[in-house]
Amino acid sequence: MRRILYTIGFSLVLGSSFSCKASSKEDPLVALLSSPPVVSSVTPQIGSPAQNNLNAIYPATEVIIKGENFGVDPVVRFNDVVAAITANLGTELHTRVPDGAYSGFITVSKSGGSCLPNSKQGANCSGTEYFIDCYAITNKQYGSEIEIKQGQSLSVEFGAIETKAFHTDTLLGARNLIIGCQSVVTVRVFSRSCQATDYVLQNDPIIPFPAGVATQFYITANSATCSLVL
């Protein structure tokens, strides 16, 4: 009887030992390091790089990325532009919209990982859409943006030295904005990464707009009716 009990006990101990050895192969730390990061939210999801224009300076939008498994040395990108990480709190990454950023994707990749160009896909990569808005950072000081679409014409009334904000739709091809006005106008045009080009005190300017993006711009006129043709 004692031999039977001894055999049973030995078998239980031996089985337990094999079980421990089997489970040790699945190291949770190794699994964590090899699994991809997860981006659950980005706040805000609309922002701007730093703007230093002729009459205003705006800092880059601060962005908080929440998620998990970011690792100890993650890389944040706005499309292909790397952004500096100001704080890594484990489940939160703090950063700012970098110079040259444009609408597309914000991504996090772990050390040794990579994201495909202009994509949220890749090895050890996660991300979501992000939108660059050059006007929102001003708290829309000139009122709501007026949209002008490709092939459209608008007639716009301006009061005494008044500025209005506009944006195009996404242009299928390069176009010229043709402005006809009863007064000289000043036009500020933003690139997709919010760099401003000013056309100061122009008579009926013709301004080139690039293909594939929605362009934001301001027009300042003095007590005039202006026609816009795109």
UniProtKB/TrEMBL annotation:
Keywords: Signal. Residues 1-22 form the signal peptide. InterPro entries: Ig-like_fold, Ig_E-set. NCBIfam families: LIC10067_lipo. This is IPT/TIG domain-containing protein.
